[in-house]
Amino acid sequence: WTPPHFWALALFMNSDYEKARVPMLTVTHGRKATRAHIFVYTVALVPVALGAAFTAIGGPVYLAVSLVLNALFLVGAWRIWRRPEARAEADKYAVEKRFFALSLAYLFGHFAAILVEATPWAEALATWANWGAVTWR
Fold it and tell me: Is residue 133 part of a domain?
């Protein structure tokens, strides 16, 4: 989660990183490479995030939330990757800013789903849905 989150921020705050001489990917490798890295890291993140549904911290609620969040995150990363820099400059990095905001919701949503899974009624839901038969609890 961290690389796509901070690289999206770096796309629209690049001049600040350059002035401060912070070696963000946008400064060291350019915006085009950063866009590609955001997509690649997001693709790598998806199975890890979804995989948690099949561990002791996950369950059916987490899986449902994670499927939606990962689909949104993948689409957002793909849009950034395919987006021409001139277009991003023209609309003041609106897509990149939305992706950055989405990354915050992505993390919050996963943590919220983990909390829901930890509630007492989540065990009853897991039993009702026969989720226990497919998890590693």
Answer: no
Instruction: Supply the pTM of this predicted model.
Output: 0.86
Please check whether residue 38 lies inside any domain of the structure: yes
Find the angle CA(34)-CA(95)-CA(9) to the nearest 5 degrees.
Answer: 50
Position 124 in a domain: no
Q: How many domains does the chain have?
A: 1
pLDDT tens digits, one per residue of 35-55 = 999 999 999 999 999 999 999
- For the stretch 57-69, pLDDT in tens is 999 999 999 999 9
Q: Of 73, 75, 96, 74, which Cα lies nearest the Cα of 13?
A: 96
Pair 43, 119: CB distance under 8 Å: no
3-state secondary structure 47-73: HHHHHHHHCCCCCHHHHHHHHHHHHHH
